[in-house]
Specification:
430 residues, 4-stranded antiparallel beta sheet, 27 strands
Amino acid sequence: MPTRLPVYNLDPADGVEGDVIKVEDGRFVVGAVDTAFGRMTPYATIAATRDPANPTLEETGVDSMPENIIKVGDTYWLLYASKDGSSYYRLHLASSSSKHGPWAPYGSNPVLDVGSQAWEGFITNGGCILEHEGTFYIFYSSYGGSSDGVGVATASSVTGPYTKYASNPILEPSVSGWDSLRVQEPDVHVLDDGTWVMAFMAEDDAFPVAETEKIGIATASDPFGPWTKSADNPVLDFGDPGEWDAAVVADPSMLRDPSGFWWMQYSGTTSGGGPAGASVGLAWALDPRGTWHKWGEILGPSGGAGDFDEDGVFRGAIYYEDGEYVMPYCGVPASGFRKGGNAILTVTSDTDLHGHESAADPHAQYLTQTEGDARYVRTVNNTAPDVDGNVDVAGAGGAGEILVSDTITPPIDFSDLLTNEAQDDLIYEG
């Protein structure tokens, strides 16, 4: 089965990212059309379809707002925030034999309640659950009336009991700037190199609540910190006036797709002040610590009178398993309590490997990775005489060549990119 890896494509004609197919015998296909994978790449068509069984999470007289799914054994668990009409939000669990639900609330909810510390006395909300090396972590956000932040709790079982870290909060608002009012809604992943990465929502204290929500990134070598906020924050800012995310960018959740790309689901609105009118969209990156690129809106309010998501959709997190993408989300009704639903993401691609609509490009540049060893590859037109080290390949546009270099280690200084022969392209950074 072919495998693909994302790369930078520095073709001066387009300057966009691309990817590569490597066939079993080590040959490379140039300019082939990618229709067999159904993976989320920036060039794919991604459509969200509401589950006909919606709502899949509902409790009588209670707000239920999905966060993310985790699978333990044969059981799927959904973390969600719950609040009745007279109390504060707390974190609950629900289970199902299917990633589509329906979801049955856990009998001993809440699994994480408000706390005694000043920063978490009112709500325990906006979190994520994950398992790492036998320990279950719930990262959560809280508010105590005069301060807030992000905390973490751990357990040896998915249902707990969960013990809050004694030195919470692990992430707090800055003294000034874009994240000086609130830091909330954490989503955390562990990278292959052991780095912990958190996406979070934050606001500026120079403005009212829910008027300046944007998304940042923080990293740590340990889940308990210290956490360091990225110097590039906010990594996702408001869209242009009139766009679906022009006033709010919030509720981040990340997914590492089998294609190698990182995706971030997030909520947006055209005006601030709350989730009414909210939609859900996507951004992508080659590394969650790097540059995030907005992909676009994928799901908006249903608009159907009486629908649980008539007035908006927000929160949730894409869950991938066995070639299927399921996205739980929270619906905003015109009146009444909030409920959870699912959307199914359909992913197709009608472009070639690096995003061109044409079927052939003999100057495309690719990166391939063998087990434990990264190599840089560039395709060139046939040269006479052959460039030393080139191997002939058959691409969709005819015969070409691939030049392999084992001597370059990322990151590459782009001012020192190599060329060879008049018809060669630049070697790119993978």
